[in-house]
Amino acid sequence: MALLGTKTYKNFIAGEWVDASSGETFESTNPANGDTIGVFPKSSAADVDRAVEAAKTAYEEWRLVPAPKRGEILFRFAQLLQDQKSDLADLMSHEMGKVLAEAGGDVQEAIDMSFYMGGEGRRLFGQTTPSELRDKFNMSVRMPIGVVGVITPWNFPIAIPSWKITPALVAGNTIVFKPATDTPLLGERFVELLSEAGVPAGVVNVIHGGGGEVGDGIVRHPDVPVVTITGSRETGVAVLKAAADNLKHVHLELGGKNAVIVMDDADLDVAIDGILWSAFGTSGQRCTAASRVIVHRAVYDELQSRLVAQAEKMRLGPGWEEDTDVGPLINRRALDKVHSYTGIGRDEGARLLTGGEIASDNGLDDGNFYRPTIFADVEPGMRIAQEEIFGPTTALIPVDSIDQAIQVANGVRYGLSSSIFTQDVNRAFRAMRDLDTGITYINAGTIGAEVHLPFGGTKDTGNGHREAGQAALDVFTEWKSIYVDYSGKLQRAQIDTIEHPSP
Ligand code: UN1
Protein backbone atom coordinates (compact mmCIF):
# COMPACT_ATOMS: atom_id res chain seq x y z
CA MET A 1 0.00 0.00 0.00
CA ALA A 2 1.58 3.26 -1.06
CA LEU A 3 1.18 5.99 1.51
CA LEU A 4 2.25 9.13 -0.29
CA GLY A 5 2.86 11.49 2.57
CA THR A 6 0.86 11.41 5.73
CA LYS A 7 -2.72 12.46 5.29
CA THR A 8 -4.74 14.32 7.87
CA TYR A 9 -8.30 13.13 8.42
CA LYS A 10 -11.37 14.68 10.01
CA ASN A 11 -14.51 13.91 11.93
CA PHE A 12 -17.74 13.44 9.96
CA ILE A 13 -20.67 15.37 11.41
CA ALA A 14 -23.97 16.17 9.69
CA GLY A 15 -22.47 15.07 6.38
CA GLU A 16 -19.46 17.42 6.63
CA TRP A 17 -15.80 16.58 7.26
CA VAL A 18 -14.70 18.78 10.17
CA ASP A 19 -11.69 19.18 12.48
CA ALA A 20 -11.92 18.63 16.21
CA SER A 21 -12.93 21.84 17.96
CA SER A 22 -9.68 21.78 19.97
CA GLY A 23 -7.58 21.45 16.79
CA GLU A 24 -5.62 18.65 18.49
CA THR A 25 -4.64 15.47 16.67
CA PHE A 26 -3.27 11.95 17.18
CA GLU A 27 -1.53 9.50 14.88
CA SER A 28 -2.46 6.03 13.73
CA THR A 29 0.63 3.87 13.23
CA ASN A 30 1.43 0.59 11.51
CA PRO A 31 1.99 -2.07 14.20
CA ALA A 32 4.41 -4.03 11.98
CA ASN A 33 6.92 -1.23 11.41
CA GLY A 34 5.86 1.94 13.23
CA ASP A 35 5.07 3.92 10.03
CA THR A 36 2.46 6.64 10.34
CA ILE A 37 -0.85 5.70 8.69
CA GLY A 38 -2.61 9.02 9.19
CA VAL A 39 -3.31 11.94 11.51
CA PHE A 40 -6.74 12.16 13.13
CA PRO A 41 -8.67 14.73 15.16
CA LYS A 42 -8.39 14.27 18.91
CA SER A 43 -11.94 15.19 19.73
CA SER A 44 -13.53 16.26 22.98
CA ALA A 45 -16.93 16.58 24.63
CA ALA A 46 -17.75 19.64 22.47
CA ASP A 47 -17.39 17.53 19.31
CA VAL A 48 -19.54 14.78 20.83
CA ASP A 49 -22.24 17.40 21.50
CA ARG A 50 -22.18 18.52 17.86
CA ALA A 51 -22.36 14.95 16.57
CA VAL A 52 -25.20 14.01 18.91
CA GLU A 53 -27.11 17.11 17.87
CA ALA A 54 -26.68 16.16 14.19
CA ALA A 55 -27.77 12.58 14.84
CA LYS A 56 -30.75 13.74 16.87
CA THR A 57 -31.91 16.05 14.10
CA ALA A 58 -31.41 13.40 11.40
CA TYR A 59 -33.35 10.85 13.46
CA GLU A 60 -36.64 12.67 12.95
CA GLU A 61 -36.43 12.02 9.17
CA TRP A 62 -34.58 8.69 9.18
CA ARG A 63 -37.04 6.95 11.47
CA LEU A 64 -39.76 7.69 8.88
CA VAL A 65 -37.83 6.35 5.88
CA PRO A 66 -39.55 3.03 5.07
CA ALA A 67 -37.47 0.18 6.46
CA PRO A 68 -37.13 -1.58 3.06
CA LYS A 69 -35.53 1.63 1.73
CA ARG A 70 -33.15 1.75 4.68
CA GLY A 71 -32.33 -1.88 3.89
CA GLU A 72 -31.61 -1.07 0.24
CA ILE A 73 -28.95 1.41 1.35
CA LEU A 74 -27.35 -1.41 3.35
CA PHE A 75 -27.41 -3.64 0.26
CA ARG A 76 -25.55 -0.92 -1.64
CA PHE A 77 -23.11 -0.61 1.26
CA ALA A 78 -22.50 -4.38 1.18
CA GLN A 79 -21.82 -4.12 -2.55
CA LEU A 80 -19.34 -1.26 -2.03
CA LEU A 81 -17.56 -3.28 0.65
CA GLN A 82 -17.42 -6.17 -1.81
CA ASP A 83 -15.91 -3.92 -4.51
CA GLN A 84 -13.38 -2.53 -2.04
CA LYS A 85 -12.65 -5.82 -0.27
CA SER A 86 -9.04 -6.24 -1.33
CA ASP A 87 -8.15 -2.56 -0.75
CA LEU A 88 -9.76 -2.63 2.69
CA ALA A 89 -7.99 -5.89 3.56
CA ASP A 90 -4.70 -4.40 2.46
CA LEU A 91 -5.30 -1.29 4.55
CA MET A 92 -6.30 -3.48 7.51
CA SER A 93 -3.07 -5.47 7.29
CA HIS A 94 -1.22 -2.15 7.55
CA GLU A 95 -3.29 -0.35 10.18
CA MET A 96 -4.39 -3.24 12.41
CA GLY A 97 -1.75 -5.83 11.48
CA LYS A 98 -3.76 -8.98 10.79
CA VAL A 99 -2.72 -11.21 7.90
CA LEU A 100 -4.36 -10.63 4.52
CA ALA A 101 -6.55 -13.75 4.50
CA GLU A 102 -7.96 -12.83 7.91
CA ALA A 103 -8.36 -9.19 6.91
CA GLY A 104 -10.40 -10.37 3.91
CA GLY A 105 -12.49 -12.44 6.33
CA ASP A 106 -13.06 -9.39 8.51
CA VAL A 107 -14.38 -7.41 5.52
CA GLN A 108 -16.42 -10.43 4.37
CA GLU A 109 -18.09 -10.56 7.77
CA ALA A 110 -19.20 -6.96 7.27
CA ILE A 111 -20.46 -7.74 3.76
CA ASP A 112 -22.46 -10.68 5.11
CA MET A 113 -23.83 -8.63 7.99
CA SER A 114 -24.85 -5.76 5.74
CA PHE A 115 -26.72 -8.07 3.37
CA TYR A 116 -28.34 -9.83 6.31
CA MET A 117 -29.44 -6.62 8.03
CA GLY A 118 -30.44 -5.09 4.68
CA GLY A 119 -32.89 -7.99 4.39
CA GLU A 120 -34.27 -7.09 7.81
CA GLY A 121 -35.68 -4.00 6.12
CA ARG A 122 -38.41 -6.27 4.75
CA ARG A 123 -38.85 -8.22 7.98
CA LEU A 124 -38.28 -6.50 11.35
CA PHE A 125 -41.01 -8.90 12.38
CA GLY A 126 -43.30 -8.24 15.27
CA GLN A 127 -46.30 -10.37 16.19
CA THR A 128 -50.01 -10.30 15.61
CA THR A 129 -52.02 -12.07 18.26
CA PRO A 130 -55.66 -12.76 19.08
CA SER A 131 -57.37 -10.51 21.58
CA GLU A 132 -59.28 -11.66 24.64
CA LEU A 133 -62.06 -9.30 23.53
CA ARG A 134 -64.29 -9.36 20.44
CA ASP A 135 -63.71 -6.80 17.67
CA LYS A 136 -60.25 -5.97 18.85
CA PHE A 137 -56.89 -6.40 17.11
CA ASN A 138 -53.50 -6.80 18.81
CA MET A 139 -49.96 -6.55 17.51
CA SER A 140 -46.44 -5.79 18.62
CA VAL A 141 -44.03 -3.77 16.47
CA ARG A 142 -40.37 -2.84 16.76
CA MET A 143 -39.70 0.87 17.26
CA PRO A 144 -36.40 2.65 16.70
CA ILE A 145 -35.00 4.28 19.83
CA GLY A 146 -32.99 7.32 18.73
CA VAL A 147 -29.28 8.11 18.73
CA VAL A 148 -27.05 5.07 19.22
CA GLY A 149 -23.52 5.51 20.57
CA VAL A 150 -21.22 2.96 18.90
CA ILE A 151 -17.79 2.35 20.42
CA THR A 152 -15.73 -0.27 18.62
CA PRO A 153 -12.44 -2.10 19.20
CA TRP A 154 -9.45 -2.36 16.86
CA ASN A 155 -9.32 -6.16 16.48
CA PHE A 156 -12.19 -6.41 13.96
CA PRO A 157 -12.08 -2.87 12.61
CA ILE A 158 -14.61 -3.37 9.78
CA ALA A 159 -16.63 -6.38 10.98
CA ILE A 160 -17.53 -5.14 14.46
CA PRO A 161 -18.70 -1.68 13.33
CA SER A 162 -20.98 -3.52 10.88
CA TRP A 163 -22.36 -5.70 13.70
CA LYS A 164 -23.45 -2.61 15.57
CA ILE A 165 -24.19 -0.01 12.92
CA THR A 166 -26.16 -2.02 10.33
CA PRO A 167 -28.86 -3.38 12.68
CA ALA A 168 -29.13 0.03 14.37
CA LEU A 169 -29.63 1.72 10.99
CA VAL A 170 -32.12 -0.70 9.48
CA ALA A 171 -34.22 -0.33 12.61
CA GLY A 172 -34.34 3.45 12.07
CA ASN A 173 -31.81 4.77 14.58
CA THR A 174 -29.03 7.28 13.91
CA ILE A 175 -25.41 6.87 14.94
CA VAL A 176 -22.53 8.55 16.72
CA PHE A 177 -19.57 6.29 16.06
CA LYS A 178 -16.21 6.31 17.83
CA PRO A 179 -13.77 3.93 16.14
CA ALA A 180 -10.80 2.61 18.13
CA THR A 181 -7.84 5.01 18.26
CA ASP A 182 -5.60 2.23 16.90
CA THR A 183 -7.68 1.82 13.71
CA PRO A 184 -9.26 5.21 12.91
CA LEU A 185 -8.59 5.06 9.17
CA LEU A 186 -10.61 1.86 8.79
CA GLY A 187 -13.40 3.51 10.80
CA GLU A 188 -13.27 6.50 8.50
CA ARG A 189 -13.37 4.29 5.37
CA PHE A 190 -16.38 2.45 6.81
CA VAL A 191 -18.32 5.69 7.20
CA GLU A 192 -17.21 7.05 3.82
CA LEU A 193 -18.63 3.95 2.14
CA LEU A 194 -21.87 4.18 4.12
CA SER A 195 -22.24 7.74 2.99
CA GLU A 196 -21.47 6.75 -0.63
CA ALA A 197 -24.13 4.03 -0.32
CA GLY A 198 -26.70 6.74 0.34
CA VAL A 199 -26.97 7.11 4.12
CA PRO A 200 -28.25 10.70 4.50
CA ALA A 201 -26.27 13.46 6.23
CA GLY A 202 -26.36 13.26 10.01
CA VAL A 203 -27.56 9.64 10.12
CA VAL A 204 -24.02 8.32 10.75
CA ASN A 205 -21.47 10.61 12.39
CA VAL A 206 -17.91 9.67 13.25
CA ILE A 207 -15.90 11.20 16.06
CA HIS A 208 -12.26 10.22 16.48
CA GLY A 209 -10.52 10.28 19.83
CA GLY A 210 -9.90 8.45 23.06
CA GLY A 211 -12.22 6.61 25.40
CA GLY A 212 -11.65 9.14 28.20
CA GLU A 213 -12.94 12.14 26.27
CA VAL A 214 -15.04 10.91 23.36
CA GLY A 215 -16.15 7.51 24.66
CA ASP A 216 -17.10 8.87 28.04
CA GLY A 217 -18.82 11.85 26.41
CA ILE A 218 -21.01 9.50 24.35
CA VAL A 219 -21.77 7.22 27.28
CA ARG A 220 -22.85 10.12 29.53
CA HIS A 221 -24.70 12.17 26.91
CA PRO A 222 -28.39 12.45 27.88
CA ASP A 223 -29.49 12.41 24.22
CA VAL A 224 -27.85 9.04 23.46
CA PRO A 225 -30.32 6.46 24.78
CA VAL A 226 -28.43 3.39 23.52
CA VAL A 227 -24.74 2.58 23.87
CA THR A 228 -23.06 -0.47 22.35
CA ILE A 229 -19.45 -1.25 23.12
CA THR A 230 -17.01 -4.11 22.62
CA GLY A 231 -14.08 -3.90 25.01
CA SER A 232 -12.59 -5.17 28.23
CA ARG A 233 -14.57 -6.25 31.28
CA GLU A 234 -13.25 -3.25 33.20
CA THR A 235 -14.40 -0.84 30.50
CA GLY A 236 -17.80 -2.54 30.41
CA VAL A 237 -18.32 -2.11 34.14
CA ALA A 238 -17.32 1.56 33.93
CA VAL A 239 -19.68 2.15 30.97
CA LEU A 240 -22.58 0.49 32.73
CA LYS A 241 -22.08 2.68 35.81
CA ALA A 242 -21.66 5.87 33.78
CA ALA A 243 -24.81 5.11 31.76
CA ALA A 244 -26.89 4.25 34.82
CA ASP A 245 -27.90 7.83 35.67
CA ASN A 246 -29.70 8.08 32.33
CA LEU A 247 -31.07 4.52 32.43
CA LYS A 248 -29.59 3.81 29.01
CA HIS A 249 -29.80 0.63 27.09
CA VAL A 250 -26.24 -0.66 27.27
CA HIS A 251 -25.04 -3.50 25.13
CA LEU A 252 -21.69 -4.94 26.26
CA GLU A 253 -19.46 -7.48 24.54
CA LEU A 254 -16.53 -8.03 26.84
CA GLY A 255 -13.79 -10.55 27.33
CA GLY A 256 -13.36 -14.26 26.90
CA LYS A 257 -11.23 -17.03 28.35
CA ASN A 258 -12.21 -19.57 25.77
CA ALA A 259 -11.30 -23.24 26.03
CA VAL A 260 -10.79 -25.99 23.50
CA ILE A 261 -11.39 -29.44 25.03
CA VAL A 262 -9.57 -32.36 23.42
CA MET A 263 -10.88 -35.78 24.45
CA ASP A 264 -8.98 -39.04 24.14
CA ASP A 265 -11.12 -40.08 21.14
CA ALA A 266 -10.54 -36.83 19.21
CA ASP A 267 -9.21 -36.68 15.68
CA LEU A 268 -5.89 -35.12 16.72
CA ASP A 269 -5.01 -33.79 13.26
CA VAL A 270 -8.17 -31.69 13.19
CA ALA A 271 -7.85 -30.74 16.85
CA ILE A 272 -4.30 -29.46 16.37
CA ASP A 273 -5.32 -27.38 13.35
CA GLY A 274 -8.25 -26.04 15.35
CA ILE A 275 -6.07 -25.11 18.32
CA LEU A 276 -3.42 -23.37 16.21
CA TRP A 277 -6.09 -21.33 14.43
CA SER A 278 -7.97 -20.48 17.61
CA ALA A 279 -4.93 -19.69 19.76
CA PHE A 280 -2.72 -17.90 17.24
CA GLY A 281 -5.10 -16.57 14.55
CA THR A 282 -5.19 -12.76 14.67
CA SER A 283 -2.15 -13.20 16.97
CA GLY A 284 -4.59 -14.28 19.68
CA GLN A 285 -6.25 -10.86 19.61
CA ARG A 286 -9.82 -12.12 19.48
CA CYS A 287 -12.45 -12.18 22.18
CA THR A 288 -12.97 -15.75 21.01
CA ALA A 289 -9.29 -16.80 21.04
CA ALA A 290 -8.53 -20.13 22.71
CA SER A 291 -6.20 -19.25 25.55
CA ARG A 292 -6.87 -22.58 27.26
CA VAL A 293 -6.60 -26.11 25.88
CA ILE A 294 -8.08 -28.73 28.19
CA VAL A 295 -6.62 -32.09 27.21
CA HIS A 296 -7.43 -35.65 28.21
CA ARG A 297 -4.32 -37.13 29.83
CA ALA A 298 -4.31 -40.10 27.40
CA VAL A 299 -3.42 -37.78 24.51
CA TYR A 300 -1.68 -35.03 26.49
CA ASP A 301 1.95 -35.90 25.63
CA GLU A 302 1.31 -36.48 21.95
CA LEU A 303 -0.74 -33.30 21.62
CA GLN A 304 1.96 -31.23 23.34
CA SER A 305 4.77 -32.31 21.08
CA ARG A 306 2.78 -32.02 17.86
CA LEU A 307 1.37 -28.62 18.82
CA VAL A 308 4.79 -27.22 19.67
CA ALA A 309 6.29 -28.50 16.41
CA GLN A 310 3.51 -26.81 14.43
CA ALA A 311 3.63 -23.55 16.42
CA GLU A 312 7.37 -23.26 15.86
CA LYS A 313 6.84 -23.47 12.11
CA MET A 314 4.59 -20.39 12.11
CA ARG A 315 6.18 -17.44 10.37
CA LEU A 316 5.97 -14.04 12.00
CA GLY A 317 5.89 -10.99 9.76
CA PRO A 318 3.89 -8.05 8.45
CA GLY A 319 0.31 -9.01 7.71
CA TRP A 320 0.52 -7.92 4.08
CA GLU A 321 3.28 -10.43 3.20
CA GLU A 322 1.68 -13.50 1.68
CA ASP A 323 3.66 -16.09 3.69
CA THR A 324 3.02 -14.54 7.11
CA ASP A 325 1.17 -16.74 9.61
CA VAL A 326 1.24 -14.44 12.64
CA GLY A 327 1.13 -10.65 12.41
CA PRO A 328 2.11 -8.10 15.06
CA LEU A 329 0.24 -7.18 18.22
CA ILE A 330 -1.62 -3.92 17.99
CA ASN A 331 0.79 -1.70 19.99
CA ARG A 332 3.69 -1.63 22.42
CA ARG A 333 1.37 -1.63 25.44
CA ALA A 334 -0.27 -4.85 24.24
CA LEU A 335 3.15 -6.41 23.63
CA ASP A 336 4.27 -5.56 27.16
CA LYS A 337 1.04 -6.92 28.63
CA VAL A 338 1.27 -10.20 26.72
CA HIS A 339 4.93 -10.60 27.68
CA SER A 340 4.13 -9.91 31.32
CA TYR A 341 1.84 -12.96 31.29
CA THR A 342 4.79 -15.14 30.28
CA GLY A 343 6.51 -13.98 33.48
CA ILE A 344 3.33 -14.58 35.46
CA GLY A 345 2.98 -18.13 34.04
CA ARG A 346 6.60 -18.94 34.85
CA ASP A 347 6.27 -17.58 38.38
CA GLU A 348 3.14 -19.66 38.90
CA GLY A 349 5.08 -22.80 38.00
CA ALA A 350 3.66 -23.53 34.54
CA ARG A 351 6.09 -25.12 32.07
CA LEU A 352 6.91 -22.95 29.04
CA LEU A 353 7.05 -25.24 26.00
CA THR A 354 7.72 -22.66 23.30
CA GLY A 355 7.69 -18.92 22.62
CA GLY A 356 7.49 -16.59 25.57
CA GLU A 357 9.54 -13.87 23.93
CA ILE A 358 9.32 -10.71 21.90
CA ALA A 359 10.53 -11.51 18.38
CA SER A 360 13.37 -9.28 17.21
CA ASP A 361 15.18 -11.00 14.35
CA ASN A 362 14.80 -10.12 10.64
CA GLY A 363 13.58 -6.59 11.23
CA LEU A 364 10.72 -7.71 13.48
CA ASP A 365 11.96 -5.39 16.23
CA ASP A 366 10.47 -2.45 14.32
CA GLY A 367 7.05 -3.90 15.12
CA ASN A 368 5.21 -5.50 18.03
CA PHE A 369 5.82 -9.18 17.33
CA TYR A 370 5.39 -11.92 19.92
CA ARG A 371 6.21 -15.58 19.42
CA PRO A 372 3.38 -18.12 19.67
CA THR A 373 3.58 -19.21 23.29
CA ILE A 374 2.45 -22.48 24.83
CA PHE A 375 2.49 -23.32 28.53
CA ALA A 376 1.98 -26.90 29.76
CA ASP A 377 1.04 -28.35 33.15
CA VAL A 378 -1.17 -25.34 33.85
CA GLU A 379 -3.41 -25.51 36.92
CA PRO A 380 -6.96 -24.28 36.29
CA GLY A 381 -6.66 -21.59 38.97
CA MET A 382 -3.46 -20.00 37.67
CA ARG A 383 -3.74 -16.44 36.39
CA ILE A 384 -2.71 -17.52 32.86
CA ALA A 385 -5.71 -19.87 32.94
CA GLN A 386 -8.11 -17.27 34.34
CA GLU A 387 -7.33 -13.86 32.86
CA GLU A 388 -7.79 -12.66 29.31
CA ILE A 389 -4.33 -12.19 27.76
CA PHE A 390 -5.38 -11.08 24.24
CA GLY A 391 -2.21 -12.38 22.62
CA PRO A 392 -0.71 -15.56 21.14
CA THR A 393 -0.46 -17.39 24.45
CA THR A 394 -2.27 -20.57 25.34
CA ALA A 395 -2.28 -22.83 28.39
CA LEU A 396 -2.50 -26.63 28.29
CA ILE A 397 -4.43 -28.10 31.20
CA PRO A 398 -4.49 -31.92 31.64
CA VAL A 399 -7.72 -33.62 32.79
CA ASP A 400 -8.91 -37.21 33.31
CA SER A 401 -12.54 -37.14 32.22
CA ILE A 402 -15.30 -35.27 30.37
CA ASP A 403 -16.74 -34.19 33.74
CA GLN A 404 -13.48 -32.66 34.81
CA ALA A 405 -12.99 -31.07 31.39
CA ILE A 406 -16.37 -29.33 31.56
CA GLN A 407 -15.80 -28.25 35.15
CA VAL A 408 -12.43 -26.71 34.27
CA ALA A 409 -13.84 -25.09 31.11
CA ASN A 410 -16.62 -23.46 33.15
CA GLY A 411 -14.34 -22.43 36.00
CA VAL A 412 -13.65 -18.91 34.74
CA ARG A 413 -15.53 -15.63 35.02
CA TYR A 414 -16.05 -15.32 31.25
CA GLY A 415 -18.46 -17.28 29.02
CA LEU A 416 -18.01 -16.37 25.36
CA SER A 417 -17.09 -19.47 23.34
CA SER A 418 -16.01 -23.05 23.92
CA SER A 419 -15.14 -26.07 21.83
CA ILE A 420 -14.80 -29.81 22.14
CA PHE A 421 -13.03 -32.29 19.90
CA THR A 422 -14.58 -35.74 20.28
CA GLN A 423 -15.97 -38.50 18.05
CA ASP A 424 -18.43 -39.54 20.75
CA VAL A 425 -21.93 -38.17 20.18
CA ASN A 426 -22.84 -38.53 23.85
CA ARG A 427 -19.88 -36.43 24.94
CA ALA A 428 -20.66 -33.87 22.25
CA PHE A 429 -24.23 -33.47 23.49
CA ARG A 430 -23.08 -33.29 27.12
CA ALA A 431 -20.77 -30.46 26.11
CA MET A 432 -23.48 -28.63 24.14
CA ARG A 433 -25.69 -28.66 27.21
CA ASP A 434 -23.18 -28.08 29.98
CA LEU A 435 -20.51 -25.71 28.65
CA ASP A 436 -21.58 -22.37 30.07
CA THR A 437 -20.82 -20.12 27.09
CA GLY A 438 -22.82 -18.19 24.51
CA ILE A 439 -21.21 -20.15 21.66
CA THR A 440 -20.11 -23.81 21.57
CA TYR A 441 -18.31 -25.54 18.72
CA ILE A 442 -18.15 -29.29 18.17
CA ASN A 443 -15.03 -30.47 16.31
CA ALA A 444 -14.03 -26.90 15.44
CA GLY A 445 -11.99 -24.25 17.23
CA THR A 446 -13.42 -21.47 19.38
CA ILE A 447 -13.67 -18.96 16.52
CA GLY A 448 -15.82 -18.86 13.43
CA ALA A 449 -19.08 -17.17 14.37
CA GLU A 450 -21.45 -16.52 11.43
CA VAL A 451 -23.52 -13.36 11.18
CA HIS A 452 -27.02 -14.82 11.25
CA LEU A 453 -26.65 -16.43 14.68
CA PRO A 454 -26.48 -14.56 17.98
CA PHE A 455 -22.95 -13.61 19.08
CA GLY A 456 -22.11 -12.96 22.72
CA GLY A 457 -21.51 -14.67 25.99
CA THR A 458 -22.69 -15.61 29.43
CA LYS A 459 -21.37 -14.47 32.81
CA ASP A 460 -18.87 -11.59 32.74
CA THR A 461 -18.66 -11.61 28.94
CA GLY A 462 -21.63 -9.31 28.76
CA ASN A 463 -24.90 -8.18 30.25
CA GLY A 464 -27.31 -10.58 28.58
CA HIS A 465 -27.53 -9.03 25.12
CA ARG A 466 -26.36 -10.50 21.83
CA GLU A 467 -25.00 -9.08 18.61
CA ALA A 468 -25.73 -10.48 15.14
CA GLY A 469 -28.74 -12.49 14.03
CA GLN A 470 -32.25 -11.53 15.06
CA ALA A 471 -31.03 -11.02 18.62
CA ALA A 472 -29.17 -7.84 17.60
CA LEU A 473 -32.48 -6.13 16.83
CA ASP A 474 -33.43 -6.40 20.49
CA VAL A 475 -30.57 -4.05 21.37
CA PHE A 476 -31.61 -1.40 18.87
CA THR A 477 -35.41 -1.43 19.13
CA GLU A 478 -38.11 -1.02 21.72
CA TRP A 479 -41.22 -3.17 21.54
CA LYS A 480 -44.50 -1.39 21.21
CA SER A 481 -47.72 -3.33 21.83
CA ILE A 482 -50.69 -1.93 19.94
CA TYR A 483 -54.38 -2.62 20.69
CA VAL A 484 -57.01 -1.59 18.13
CA ASP A 485 -60.63 -1.72 19.30
CA TYR A 486 -63.18 -1.69 16.44
CA SER A 487 -66.25 -2.61 18.52
CA GLY A 488 -67.51 0.95 18.73
CA LYS A 489 -67.86 0.76 22.48
CA LEU A 490 -65.62 0.65 25.54
CA GLN A 491 -64.40 -2.89 26.15
CA ARG A 492 -62.37 -3.40 29.32
CA ALA A 493 -59.57 -5.98 29.24
CA GLN A 494 -59.73 -8.61 31.97
CA ILE A 495 -63.28 -7.43 32.82
CA ASP A 496 -65.53 -7.41 29.77
CA THR A 497 -64.30 -10.77 28.52
CA ILE A 498 -66.96 -13.28 27.48
CA GLU A 499 -67.74 -15.80 30.20
CA HIS A 500 -67.34 -19.39 29.10
CA PRO A 501 -69.05 -22.28 30.74
CA SER A 502 -66.61 -24.19 32.89
CA PRO A 503 -65.74 -27.63 31.46
C1 UN1 B 1 -14.17 -10.82 18.40
O1 UN1 B 1 -13.12 -11.42 18.64
O2 UN1 B 1 -14.53 -9.84 19.06
O3 UN1 B 1 -15.92 -15.91 15.60
C2 UN1 B 1 -15.05 -11.15 17.25
C3 UN1 B 1 -15.00 -15.13 15.49
C4 UN1 B 1 -15.15 -13.91 14.61
C5 UN1 B 1 -15.55 -12.72 15.39
C6 UN1 B 1 -14.71 -12.45 16.60
N1 UN1 B 1 -16.12 -14.19 13.57
O4 UN1 B 1 -13.93 -15.27 16.09
Task: Characterize the structure shown.
The relative contact order is 0.13. Helix 3 packs across helix 4 (100-120). The mean pLDDT is 97. The protein is 37% helix and 20% strand. The protein is built from 14 helices and 21 strands. It has helices at residues 45-62, 67-83, 85-95, 100-120, 159-170, 184-197, 211-220, 233-244, 268-280, 297-313, 332-348, 402-410, 425-434, 471-476, and strands spanning 11-13, 16-18, 25-29, 36-41, 127-129, 136-144, 147-151, 174-178, 204-206, 226-230, 249-253, 258-262, 290-296, 351-354, 373-376, 393-399, 414-415, 417-421, 439-442, 458-459, 477-485. The strands form 6 sheets. Strands 14-15-16-13-12-18-19 form a 7-stranded mixed β-sheet, with helices on both faces. Strands 9-8-7-10-11 form a 5-stranded parallel β-sheet, with helices on both faces. Strands 5-6-21 form a 3-stranded antiparallel β-sheet. It is an alpha/beta fold and 503 residues long. 2-aminohexanedioic acid is lined by residues 109, 155-156, 230, 286-288, 447-449.
